[in-house]
Amino acid sequence: MCGIVGGVTSKNITPLLLEGLNRLEYRGYDSSGLIVLSNKNTFNRARSVGKVANLEKKLKSRSKKINGNIGIAHTRWATHGEPSSLNAHPHISKNSVSVVHNGIIENYIELKNNQIKQGYKFESETDTEVIAHAIDFEMKSCETLIASVQKAVMSFEGSYGLGIISSNFPDRIIATRKGSPLLIGIGENGNYIASDQIALLSETKKFIFLEEGDIAEIEINKVTIIDIDGNLAKRPIVISKIKADQSDKGNYSHFMQKEIFEQPQAIRDTLESRITNDSVISSAFGYEAEGIFKSIKQLQIVACGSSFNAGLVAKYWIEDIAKIQCSVEIASEYRYRNPILQNNTLFVTLSQSGETADTLEALKVAKKINSKVKSLCISNSAESSLTRLSDLTFLTHAGPEIGVASTKAFTTQLVSLALLLCSIGKLQKKIDIKQEKEIVIGLKKLPGLLNETLLQESLIKKLASRFKDNTSTLFLGRGTMHAIAMEGALKLKEISYIHAEAYPAGELKHGPIALIDKNMPVIAIAPNDELLEKLKSNLHEVKSRGSQMIVFEDEDSKVQPMESMLVVPIISNLGRISAPIIFTIPLQLLSYHVALIRGTDVDKPRNLAKSVTVE
Ligand code: M6R
After folding, report:
1. Atom 2 (ligand 1): residue with closest C-alpha?
2. How far apart are CA 223 and CA 204, in angstroms?
């Protein structure tokens, strides 16, 4: 969603703000802006609609340059008020306070009405402007900026990550968060704030992660943090393991392409120090996991988007192989429906970012419903709101994923879930040594198999041209491949803007088959499993209605090609665990190349954000 970066340094802050904004653009954007305090303690602001490049152009064309040692900046993903320069952040109140905000102030209309009565004038339609005015108002009766912020935030309902500067206190930034991520970067030449480590990696690797309700005062060589109860707080400095160049495209045209090709390494990294030659190590999920895993009777997985699709695959694995009940639910539904949560349930959240608002709220709801329930978060982000709130954390180690469309995060989630299956199954004696060995050996082969599959890129690129003028596509699969079909459909719609739906192939005759004609291409996934013959019958049903079909098959599946049906063998002899992971690759590549042909913004598709931190 919105991205925040800011800093107080001995150097000119503007280049750092721009670099941070560029690095944060992947979170979603429709406008951006920055504000810097000049030597004369006046605000200099620039805002622009569209990409950060537009803001850069605007800054270059100004005769009066924006320079100074302290500033804040923002990429906006509109929630309240259309994307426009006036609605872009930073917002200012009476030339005294300026604010950047990630989150939503839910009671902003009530606050706005009061502030209008107090004489404040509004220039935007955003919920954020009330924050600037509220702090300015409190400054009349408070001696310090931090005290004004402390008082002002008491009136806010909703979520916020805030960066605040004031012309009355020109040597400090105030940062505070509730429900939205925010961290402090500790540098050699100054101190910084950001909503994501990536924004600051060129400047520092030392980070302090603010906790819920923390308010921090950031000066050039000092950081003071006050906790939610108003007490002085000590938060640890964490050294980031993310390399600055991991967030660059390298030789690839897009982050998505780079991330697709990083999957063999990402999976190696996910497996590293989690497995021995033939088993999953007992502490893979943390030392407390053993006791928890032994006692659970069922799993409840909650997630959104691709993470939800990964959860669906795991349901098949866990019930089929470990014979433990497993439910999977979309987080935005779970959080609002008064679910029943039995004792001895392991509540599993899956989230690349660890910051998805719906998933976070679903976990909070689960904790409220049954405080005895233990939680595990499988995430790609070590320091995130979800990992902090969970009893157990398992990191996917995929490295930064910048492309909005999830690729390596998804496949490493599947690998992590396979490890979870083994850990729980083994501790509950539902999986024996031989089965575990088979799964582990299969997982170890994955990087090699993925490399082999990625070699098919040029073939898949050719197939993509068929979708150039397409308006709709149907994806079919059975068993775990239904979840992979869902993932394929999600990828196609989010980056190529083609309507796509996934169905379990057996469900076709209950309605969707009515859609099938020569204008409705069908993509099917045909692994060599116990449902293969059933799937083949489904393919005949589709074929006889005139659809143009592409079937990605296991070489051993031997689907008979028919007229208008292209059969693409992927790899032979895939097992139950490796098949869904391998079949994801051609679907990712297909979406990527279709998007390229259609000329969309692959890494930053319209209307989407990488991390959905608002409801
Ligand atoms: O960070 P999370 O895994 O919690 O994000 C969940 C979804 O927003 C995410 O998977 C989204 O659907 C992706 N754009 C899919 O490619």
Report:
1. 351
2. 15
Pairing of strands 392-395, 374-379: parallel
Query: Which residues fall within 8 angstroms of residue 432, CB to CB, at 6 or more apart?
Result: none
What is the amino acid identity at position 603? D
Catalytic: which of 2, 326, 377, 422?
Answer: 2
Tokens linked to 525: 């996934």
φ/ψ of 184, rounded to 5, equals: -115, 135
Does 429 participate in catalysis according to the annotation? no
Q: Which whole number is the average pLDDT over 162-168?
A: 97
Q: Which of 16-25, 140-149, 292-301 has the lowest mean pLDDT?
A: 16-25
Q: Kindly report the protein residue whose alpha carbon is nearest to atom 11 of ligand 1.
A: 305
pLDDT in tens, 56-84: 999 999 888 899 999 999 998 777 888 89
Q: What is the pLDDT of residue 59?
A: 94
Contact 304, 331 (CB under 8 A): yes
The whole-angstrom separation of Cα 176 and Cα 129 is 16
Name the superfamily (CATH) of residues 3-247. Answer: Aminohydrolase, N-terminal nucleophile (Ntn) domain (3.60.20.10)
| From 51, 315, 491, 610, active-site residue | 610
The position carrying tokens 């994806």 is: 475
> How far is 204 from 504, CA to CA, in rounded Å?
48
Bridge-partner residues for 49, per DSSP?
31
* 273-303 CB burial, b ≥16 within 10 A, e <16: ebbeeebbeeebbeeebeebbeebeebbbbb
- Which superfamily, per CATH, for 457-598? Glucose-6-phosphate isomerase like protein; domain 1 (3.40.50.10490)
Contact call for residues 522 and 516 (beta carbons, < 8 A): yes
2 is an active site residue: yes
Q: Could you tell me the fold of the domain covering 255-454? A: Rossmann fold (3.40.50)
Distance, CA of 609 to CA of 605 (rounded, Å): 8
